[in-house]
Design brief:
single chain; 145 residues; alpha/beta; Hypothetical Protein Ychn, Chain: A; 5-stranded parallel beta sheet; 6 helices; 5 strands; 17% strand; globular; signal; DsrEFH-like
Length: 145
């Protein structure tokens, strides 16, 4: 009986700290998917996390970075059901949050032969060292689409 009590106490001492953890301070979302529905769902989840008080750091790479362009493709700006929201439209709403950051990968613009003027206002170009630091932060949670 003593062994069972000790085993239970040991299990609880390991499990309770994990259960008591607070939500992360920052959600790092890495979005590379070309599909507009995937892009929008990534923004929906980021927006919901922001509403719960979690800062957003969104990194757009590859075809997903096109949603950050002033001259974005129609797939990035066309409204989608059920709420007639577009990936770019919801991304812009997320950017209004005081702790939220949206950036494109450092190699995205040079790969397109463009510069930062091609991006909508408020979108930056990620510094690889700073982005790696954000991803390694013990207070961050990473999602990738």
């Amino acid at each position: 009986m003593k062994t069972l009590a000790l085993a239970t106490a040991a299990a609880l001492s390991v499990a309770l700290p994990a259960l008591a953890q607070d939500k992360p301070e920052t959600l790092v979302t890495i979005l590379t998917a070309a599909e507009p529905q995937t892009q929008l769902m990534a923004m929906v989840l980021a927006a919901n996390a922001a509403q719960q008080g979690v800062a957003q750091h969104i990194l757009l790479c590859g075809p997903a970075a096109d949603i950050a362009l002033k001259d974005a493709p129609e797939t990035a700006t066309a409204p989608q059901p059920p709420r007639d929201m577009s990936p770019q439209g919801l991304m812009r709403k997320i950017m209004e949050g005081p702790q939220n950051t949206v950036e494109v990968c450092a190699i995205y613009l040079p790969g397109k032969g463009a510069d930062q003027t091609a991006l909508i206002d408020g979108v930056g170009v990620a510094d690889p060292q700073a982005m790696a630091g954000a991803m390694l932060s013990p207070t961050a949670q990473i999602t990738s689409y």
